[in-house]
Amino acid sequence: MFCEFGFRDGAMKVAYFTPSSFRTVNAGALRNVGLARALVLAGHEITIICSDHVRDEMSNEWDAILDGSKISVVQGGSPRGEGSHVFARLVRLLNGPSSDLRSRLSSISPDSLILYNAAPIPLLRLDHFARRHKLPFSLDITEWLNLADLPGGRFGPLAILHELTMRTLAWRRGRYLAISNTMAGKLGKRGLPPLVVPPIFDISPSDLVRRRDRRTHLVATGTDLRDHGKDVGGLSLIVAALAEVDPEGNRFHLDVVGAHSGQTEAYLCARLKAGAFTLHGRLSWEKTLSAVHSADFSVVLRNPADRRSNLGFPSKVPESLLLGTPILGNLFSDLSEHLEDGINAVVVSEPTKQALVSALLRLPVEIDREAVRKQALVRYTPRAWSATVSEFVMGEL
Prior knowledge:
Oligomer: single chain
CATH architecture of the largest domain: 3-Layer(aba) Sandwich
CATH topology of the largest domain: Rossmann fold
Radius of gyration: 21 Å
CATH superfamily of the largest domain: Glycogen Phosphorylase B
């Protein structure tokens, strides 16, 4: 039986529902863990209910990431069956965690609910539950998807449902955590103003010795460097610019980290000599962070006209800055408020080859990496956001 939950003295219990999968380390799951860490630091008990089924194995990388965090992650999804990848993705986007919601919440007895992004079915169910039991209910909104990227295309049923859900969020009575001011501007036209929380992480530089071979080392990371992935445009730009400035790799070296297609590999090989770049493929998160830490600059290039990029916030920016690695990239979303040319970045005036060539010709630029990290520690860590996020999620702000 559920009681009319009143706040208890001491720790509160928060149930955080997410369509993210913990079978891999990915930006969505890391966002969930970052916010959960902030709430744990405020003294609360956090349970993350993800969309994986109990038969799905969590990546063993999470053992180190979650070690000592006091964050509980449980699987709440339906069996994946033998369906296609597209169908599995469709189920996650629509349904999120789909086990017996009432039973799951009964076992937790939460004082507050959070839903990561706006999966339509759990949005309706959790909103109903929160109203019935008079609980604070927050939505953590990090992306507004491009309709063409969804299964079925821009005129498919999923695209229509996603657009309707996002456009009607402002009419409901919930509270919103937004990943950027641009996203907050879209959500806050009606109702309560959202709380803007950028990606937050608890990461530290390793003790590795950075390379010193007189070249400027650049790293381009991405969870999807395949043919039409969101990072391919930026990768093609940096490769084209390097091909004009230094195709032999005498001044620059580019490390490319992330899943990629044969088409991507052929593109690099046709424009740069073998010694000018290294294709690493998909690496563990720990090894990815090591690659970023050992680089002189992390490349972040996106098209500001792309809705998903402009309303979101690239997690690789705070990841890099927390490691003391400055950014080489253009300004989109909120990045004008986070990146300062010559301080923690070399800012590219626009995402074009010529603008990037001009930026590359300015390198090397001496940037105080320790100062970069110290500034990032007060902006992008769970500890920096703990009190504010706690007050908001518990309905006190």
